[in-house]
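Reminder to self: tokens first, then the designed residues, so the page reads top to bottom the way the pipeline ran.
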């Protein structure tokens, strides 16, 4: 299967960047400051995907399912601590997945418009891209707090399209999480699911994206030069 699209919407965490080590450090730093027990990175990895607020609420609950008894004041305080801790340590251990930089450069050279649509707070996107040498590749950066809704809601995808003046049908969404695939389906466009990311420890194929790839560079096999 191949197709002609000219705009690529990329998820960030678990797709371009393995950010879980730094997210886990900030989560555990927060828990230590609150005199609560910490969790292994392998556990925290499975809590990433719905933005900072949900991540810290899962950590306070010790589970992917947020406790109904969670104290809202504690959750607010923990979120503040987490955001400060993460802000100060965005790119200590985070790294690009194999093939990301060269593939993005190739796709840009092939004529694609590139955008990031992440559930991560918007303020963190640019510093992380800068820390990993991805500055200047993307036309638009949409964060989890850019709009009132985040993925799996389709609004951030539509917003990215409006900013780039393209139709949603011209776009392909590329992500590691069911939130990316659900958002693409709700927006009415196709998606690629990458198997190496977070997705709550579940296979991304379960969400039925049009393509499933094990490596980021596999994208190059379906993307021909724009207007070729
Ligand atoms: O930070 C998160 O919870 C998820 O971010 P992502 O949408 O880039 O995967
Ligand atoms: Mg992701």
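Designed residues (228 positions):
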């Amino acid at each position: 299967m191949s197709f002609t699209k000219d705009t690529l919407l990329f998820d960030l965490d678990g797709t371009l960047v393995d950010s879980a080590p730094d997210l886990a450090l900030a989560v555990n730093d927060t828990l230590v400051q609150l005199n609560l027990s910490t969790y292994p990175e392998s556990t925290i990895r499975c809590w990433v995907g719905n933005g900072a607020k949900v991540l810290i609420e899962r950590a306070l609950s010790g589970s992917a399912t947020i406790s109904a008894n969670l104290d809202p004041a504690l959750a607010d305080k923990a979120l503040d601590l987490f955001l400060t801790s993460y802000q100060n340590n965005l790119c200590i251990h985070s790294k690009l997945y194999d093939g990301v930089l060269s593939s993005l450069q190739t796709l840009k050279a092939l004529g694609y418009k590139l955008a990031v649509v992440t559930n991560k707070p918007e303020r963190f996107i640019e510093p992380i891209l800068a820390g990993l040498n991805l500055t200047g590749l993307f036309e638009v950066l949409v964060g989890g707090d850019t709009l009132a809704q985040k993925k799996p809601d389709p609004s951030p995808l539509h917003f990215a399209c409006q900013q780039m003046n393209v139709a949603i049908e011209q776009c392909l969404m590329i992500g590691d999480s069911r939130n990316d695939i659900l958002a693409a389906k709700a927006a009415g466009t196709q998606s690629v699911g990458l198997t190496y990311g977070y997705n709550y420890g579940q296979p991304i194929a379960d969400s039925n994206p049009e393509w499933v790839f094990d490596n980021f560079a596999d994208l190059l096999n379906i993307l021909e030069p724009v207007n070729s």
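The chain has two domains: 7-18+94-221, 20-87.
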